[in-house]
Amino acid sequence: MPKVKTNRVKYPEGWELIEPTLSELQAKMREAENDPHDGKRKCEALWPIFKIAHQKSWYIFDLYHRRKEISKELYEFCLDQGYADKNLIAKWKKVCSPSLLQFVCHLCFLSALA
């Protein structure tokens, strides 16, 4: 008899600790995406979305690299599942100066370093 494949993802240990915050940020993201942008330029309408994506990535980065509160397995799970931006975190690890950490997204880093 063949194995039945399920679509359920097995969450690593410690997921229960960060899941409420990530769910809250995801709800804010949905709200920002559905927010009407009448009278705003296209780039102005995207700023809240970039800000929330930055917050999610910073939250994961801070928990693993600074506070050391989550395991490597949970950190890699969050990156693989798209809860945080891998490229943005890679830049933070590389550059990690306070003046560059205020930028909102990876594109801002590229334009600042060019």
UniProtKB/TrEMBL annotation:
<keyword id="KW-0539">Nucleus</keyword>
<dbReference type="GO" id="GO:0005681">
    <property type="term" value="C:spliceosomal complex"/>
</dbReference>
<dbReference type="InterPro" id="IPR001748">
    <property type="entry name" value="BUD31"/>
</dbReference>
<dbReference type="GO" id="GO:0000398">
    <property type="term" value="P:mRNA splicing, via spliceosome"/>
</dbReference>
<dbReference type="Pfam" id="PF01125">
    <property type="entry name" value="BUD31"/>
</dbReference>
<comment type="similarity">
    <text>Belongs to the BUD31 (G10) family.</text>
</comment>
<protein>
    <submittedName>
        <fullName>Protein BUD31 homolog 2</fullName>
    </submittedName>
</protein>
